[in-house]
Write a structure and sequence with these properties.
By secondary structure, this protein is mainly α. It is flat.
Length: 191
């Protein structure tokens, strides 16, 4: 236990009595200060964890298989790109396009969960128009079309953000492509 624990980074040392008290932690900035320090580590992981919500929604019929496949394929490719960069002692910083995509996914998931909570039918009608002008049908139509439109925006955004991250990492990709057998430890973007 001690051998493994010696390699785990210590985020906060708090004690019930003694040198490091909760009051000291609070005055030093508290949990927000700790989260600021580990933000770069948590950011890509949070995106992948958020996508887990689509698995039960897929099984209930609220999202389509192609949408989930595209979202997860983008995440797998980004994971590979970040892994390659990390092995070359490089990092791929977050891009504004990726932040926008993530925000849209959160809105999309919230709308889908709202539909589940309200008991709305799962399968979107893909731009079919209501047969009457009853208020509840028009409201469902607006919700349905917002879901469909947002799904398309997210799919296109996922493709664009993958391109955007690839373009930003172009020099690293070219360097690795030219030297596939070279040790990652010797790669440098400044070379």
């Amino acid at each position: 236990f001690d051998r493994i624990g010696s390699h785990v980074p210590l985020l906060v040392e708090l004690q019930s009595a003694g040198r490091f008290l909760m009051d000291d932690f609070y005055r030093a900035g508290g949990l927000l200060a700790v989260l600021r320090e580990v933000r770069e580590l948590l950011d890509p992981t949070a995106d992948r964890l958020m996508l887990l919500i689509f698995v039960p929604l897929l099984s209930m019929g609220y999202v389509s298989v192609p949408l989930v496949v595209i979202l997860w394929a983008r995440e797998v490719l980004m994971f590979l790109l970040r892994t390659i960069a990390a092995r070359a002692n490089q990092s791929i910083p977050a891009r504004p396009s990726g932040k926008w995509r993530t925000a849209l996914i959160y809105v999309f998931a919230a709308l889908l969960l709202l539909g589940v909570a309200l008991g709305l039918p799962p399968a979107p009608s893909w731009f079919s128009f209501p047969t009457s002008a009853h208020a509840s049908q028009l409201l469902w139509f607006a919700y349905d079309q917002a879901i469909v439109l947002l799904a398309w925006v997210i799919v296109l955004g996922s493709v664009y953000t993958l391109y955007d991250y690839g373009r930003a990492s172009q020099r690293l990709i070219k360097l690795i492509w030219r030297n596939p057998r070279q040790s990652f430890d010797k790669l440098s973007l400044t070379a």
